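hey m, so remember when u said the tokens were messed up on ur end? i reran from scratch. heres the input so u can diff it against urs
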Amino acid sequence: MGTTIADTDPWDRPRERLLRLGPDALSDVELVALLLGSGAPRAGVIEQARELLRRHGGLAGLAAQNSIGLTAAPGVGPAKATRIVAALALARRFGTSTDRRDTLRGPGDIERIAAPLLAGVVDDRLVVIAADRASRVLGATVLPRTRAHEWPAPVRPLLAEALRHGAVTFALAHCCTEPTGDHRPFTATVAAAAEQCGLRLLDHVVRGAGH
């Protein structure tokens, strides 16, 4: 059994070091341990955090998991799993914070805003970036049950998400796992339906596999 929090000098425990030195002074294992809060019956929280990272191939793999996948690890129940998923989701969304009032001027802006949300996503899920009349970002969301290669195109959930943010314009992005696919019919269908609702589709950016 590895070293536990109880075995560590209080001055050097993760929570105390974070308060004293800030989060950058902590390792990935220690930060995940703080999210877990407590260990498993036969393992300390540091050991459990290390095992979670090992099991999922580091932070990138951990960020790609959902709560159900995380609960497969011994000692990780729904409360711990949802804390980790929520924290990593916030980290992905940081780049799309509406406090910055990003403006969608072209495909580069769309890709930059969508990239954190598409990190670890490998199944063609779509990101909807809602914007106002001046193309200033109102919010960005990954639609969990909507895929870019569905046909007929999943128009209703895409438009509903844009309208939920009060959008006038919006953009789409997804990471392509089918390099030979033609996305133009999908994009044209969504654009036509959006026009009927008083919305305007600015662009649909397709990121290549491996980006």
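this time it looks ok to me. The beta strands are 125-131, 137-147, 169-175, 200-207. if urs says something different then somethings off w ur setup not the seq
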